[in-house]
């Protein structure tokens, strides 16, 4: 009887989880997953690289694009089964999906326009090497599965990002939609943003030199990691400034060279940029160089002061450790027991106490 009850309970749990897993059928009206659901589907391209065309149904059903029909992005496909794919997806296409508080189909055109004007957008005079090096949409947006995070991690300025794509209509519907996004948020943490900007790009000194960027830009990752912001982010802070905090507005994609008037790190805009985190910001405050490279030739006083302060810091730390070890050795030699009981590690009387006062 017990075996039957256990088997029935196991079956009930299995069926519950089976039906709880979301399906991908809603957006797959043309049965693309009929082929793409198989793990081995793919081919070897002309360069000998294996290209996988497998789509995991359950993961796809839990992503941002789960309600977008496949051919809204893959517009070049006009028959099934389709011919070999020769075109890349254009993220500025208009989708056949309406946001919950808009009558117009959703589109990334507005944000693509901002991106194209930015330093990362491809310009007419760019060399082929520079074009290939610039990050495109899929470099940053890998369509990750939603990750639940605490609402305390979400800055008020996050809401401004919604207006990059959505219209200012339908306050009630917008509120419901935005609060849903706060609970199921895909934005990266500061640590992930720093890693994204560094990986395969700004931390690659060889690539930066080939692209003939400034010395300051070549050293940007190193100097940021050495700064107060970089150290705080490296230690796990969710509030310290990352790359996007200073170099972009709530539009995220509007990153410009510092000499351009639109740049958030332009001298004329630094006060407003720093005010996002700091109070009482003035012109003297913004003169602090966040990406300062402390070199002996350029800043000898600051360089040697840094070495001196670093030496003093480590000398203090190791000095305290040495004193603790000497104290421990002395107490053990004096006969005091080392036990963790009731919040203290030392128990009993020393030999000197017994010699002086006896039993």
Explain the overall architecture.
By secondary structure, this protein is mainly alpha-helical. It folds into three domains: 21-83, no CATH class; 115-144 and 186-293, no CATH class; 300-357. The protein is built from 18 helices and four strands. The strands form two sheets. Strands 1-2 form a two-stranded antiparallel sheet. Strands 3-4 form a two-stranded antiparallel ribbon. Helix 13 (220-226) packs across helix 14 (228-234).
List the main descriptive attributes of the protein structure presented here.
mainly alpha; 43% helix; 4 strands; 3 domains; two-stranded antiparallel ribbon; two-stranded antiparallel sheet; extended; 359 residues
